[in-house]
Amino acid sequence: MADALKNIIAHSLECPVCLDTFTDPKILSCSHTYCKTCLDNLLECHGNDQMLQCPVCRAETQVPNRDVSKLPASLALKSLIEDVKNHRQFCSNCKSEDKLQAVVYCQDCGKYLCFTCHNNHSQWQDFISHEVLPMREIVSGKVSVRRYRKCRKHPKEDEECFCSDCRRFACFRCVVMEHTKEGHGVIEAAVYESSHMKSIDDLKSKADEKRSCFQKYVDFIDEQKDHVSNVRKQCTDDINKAYEESVRQLTKKKKTLIGEVKGRTEEVEKELDEMKKSAVEYITHLNTLADVVINRTKVPSYMDALAAHDTLCQDLKEALKQEDPDYKQPRHSSKKGTSVSFKRNVGTDELALGKIANAVVKNIALPTKNSMDAMICTPDGRMAVGCYTGGVEIFSADGQHQQKVLKDVKIRGVGFLSDDRYVILDPSNNITLYTLEYTKLNVMFETFSDGEGGFAKLTVDGNDQIYVSYKKAKKIQVFSSAGGKAMREIPCGGYIPQQITSYNDSLIITSSDAVRLIDKQGVVKYELTELDHFPYAAMSQGNTILIAAVKHDVGVVSIDEYTNELEHVQSIVIDYKIEKPERYWYYLQQYRSGEIAFCTPDRLYIFH
Question: Where would you find the membrane-spanning parts of this chain (predicted)?
């Protein structure tokens, strides 16, 4: 009975989370008690939340200012722990009533031994390999005593079974009396312990893998920040050098330029910092949960401890469901920062010195001069340039010319259906569909002829509806991908549809002096009018609208970003010098990876 009482007291002094004797025990509002350190770790898992969830019953306790030390302490439990620590342990092997003080504890026998019994114990051949712990190390807390599970109802019986439905250990007598009904899954305690430890090992392996994955992501973000910082430093150095050669009147302009560099790059760094913060918080969350669940030496043996560890294991499993990081976002943000450079004015007003500009990745000559008539991003993220002389040229985001398809087909417009079939508009305003293998399909469309409708352009929306705009007829026809007659016509209200682009549930129409956002019934929702230069519009990957303004006479292009209400957001490219083409025709698109493609009849320019 005395040994059973000691077992009960020992269990009562164990924290359900760490399975060790309580250290600075704190009481939650649900009356469950935990070590202060364990509660600190659990609170850390909840981010900035001041509510702490009990691992045993899941009741919530508010922690003022996230300071666990302000929770009530279990003074009675602390006193009992001190009494147990100071209580002398007597030999459990001596037969006489006047037992001697124990000097060691045998882990294998489960007994405390005095000096004499220890000597006798060590002389038996079968006991030589037993693990014996000095009492001074047990009292000091350097080692933990392995406790043997004894049934609380039947103290002489070992708890050799485990009921997976009741989540508790039991002796054989308890199994017969309480766990034989339908729904009780009883297995050997050793089997459960082995399965439990395997589950913990699996969680540890997955946690290590996920932690490593996100650490690589954080390292990658740091690298991108370094690239952006280096560009900012280089730009700042260039600006300082230019201004050191000038007079004091340039100071104001100098500050303006440096501020612009700082503003552009700090915005990118802020984006990267937010990404890093999110990833680091996830790593901290994962570390805390993994440490609480994995870093221990014992299997939980009673209901509260089992409930706590079931909860914590489930929390860790939920945390491991986090998708691996997507490197595209920091890479895309980094490109916005690393594209900044300082360009000094030469041969112009020296008081202006220069401006902050965006670097061009590539300036590529098209295979056939003066041939471009259409451009669209392909379903796999490349850029397709259609040529009225014949063929579609395919370019990667880094400017590599990869292939030419439909070589003998003259192109005025090109689009793609959701199944990746090509939609081709030729100079006679005929629409033709081609398979992925470039086989012509027998699908006919009743479009306006070139004489009836005039110059035509084409776009395809997300519902596979094909829109054809006519410059002479000043209207738009809408076709099903099945072909035949137009399903309906959209009047253009007197303006000339020079280019047409699908934009969500709307259409972007560019004319010589305006950009209009219309719904699919032709109602103008927003418009930019009285523009100084001919505009060319495209939908960005961020669901905003990009507009390129070309000064054809001098050969420069500027690209700006607008909201879906055509409100200006930012300037992306400012007065970039291009090789002036013979024909006044341009196109603007954006790669899926973020690069902006601007095409003249002769050349393809790719901007970060």
Answer: none
